[in-house]
Amino acid sequence: MISLSTFLVFVVASLALVLVPGPNHLYIVARSIAQGRAAGVASALGVETGTLVHIAAAAAGLSYVIARSAALFNVIKWAGVVYLIYLGVRALTRGQEQATYEARPQPLRSVFLEGAVVNLLNPKVILFFLAFLPQFVHPEAGSVPLQIVILGVTLLVLGVTSDMIYAAGAGALGSRLRSRSNVLGYVSGVVYLGLGVATAFSGRSI
Known about the structure:
Layout: H1 4-19, H2 23-35, H3 37-60, H4 62-68, H5 70-95, H6 98-103, H7 108-120, H8 123-131, H9 144-177, H10 183-200
């Protein structure tokens, strides 16, 4: 089993990672500002549901296979780029039609699923599980898949907490800005497009 000292070091390192704003946080903030705190929470839960899939994949060894296959990795990468750009264009289009955007908010179920897809199509998350988690896994401590699951779920809990803080803060800010012009649609669109461009230009080596 994982030693207490190793686990505590992992928790401290994970806290440092999840508190620093990243692509998932930017996505959650964009959703919260555009549609309110409830949408931010739904997107956060969707993102972390995607994390659950990554944990299962890492435990099963699929993350390693994907990361070592240039073809599979690039398929995931460019699918993520296309999806983020689609979200950006859609948000910008809605930003030009403020009345329609305000009258027909996106259903929370769709927001949740969108968050999961954004996370699942993020190749950096796959590499994160390959580069970060193995540093704290020791074969002599017992089942490696079980250790990955324990560490992954711990990271998940910390991530959910961090995501909720961002969602609550951005949701409060969004409630103040929502009565203003169509700037919210443009903000969301720019964030999504920025994430898509960042993903497109993220390099890797096999």
